């Protein structure tokens, strides 16, 4: 036998022994029979008397309205925003005309051609 087959056989035997040993042992002597507390009548601990859940998402609008805090986010003024737009627009239009982008489009065409073959 080669070493790899021997190692595989030993690992398989170890796995089978572990599985057999764990399946026959009740770890911690756990009693799995349901008790009276688990099957109590009523709506449950997170519900009111009518059965509606008492845990709800809240946005705390009342608290936020009563104590407004200044926002840490600074808004960009219109001139700076317009300058950013001009830069973005120039990059967008020049990028479509660049040699790298044209080569990428040719590569996509080639991939479609290759897929059809």
Keywords:
mainly alpha, 56% helix
Write the layout of secondary structure elements.
Layout: H1 3-23, H2 61-66, H3 78-97, H4 99-116
Distance between the termini: 48 Å
Q: Please give the number of β-strands.
A: 0
- Category by helix and strand content: mainly alpha
- DSSP helix count? 4
Rg, rounded, reads 34 Å
The stretches of 5 or more residues where confidence is low (pLDDT under 50) are none
What would the average pLDDT be, to the nearest integer? Answer: 77
Strand content: under 5%
Summarize the structure.
This protein has helices at residues 3-23, 61-66, 78-97, 99-116. It has 117 residues and is mostly helical.
How would you characterize this protein structure?
The chain has 117 residues and is an all-alpha fold. The protein has helices spanning 3-23, 61-66, 78-97, 99-116. It is flat, with a radius of gyration of 34 Å.
């Amino acid at each position: 036998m080669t070493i790899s087959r021997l190692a595989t056989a030993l690992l398989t035997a170890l796995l089978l022994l572990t599985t057999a040993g764990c399946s026959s042992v009740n770890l911690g002597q756990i009693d799995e029979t349901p008790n009276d507390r688990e099957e109590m009548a009523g709506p449950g601990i997170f519900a009111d008397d009518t059965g509606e859940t008492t845990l709800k998402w809240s946005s705390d609008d009342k608290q936020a309205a009563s104590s407004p805090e200044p926002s840490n986010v600074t808004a960009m003024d219109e001139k700076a925003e317009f300058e950013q737009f001009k830069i973005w627009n120039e990059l967008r239009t020049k990028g479509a005309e660049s040699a790298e982008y044209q080569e990428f489009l040719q590569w996509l065409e080639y991939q479609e051609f290759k897929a059809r073959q």
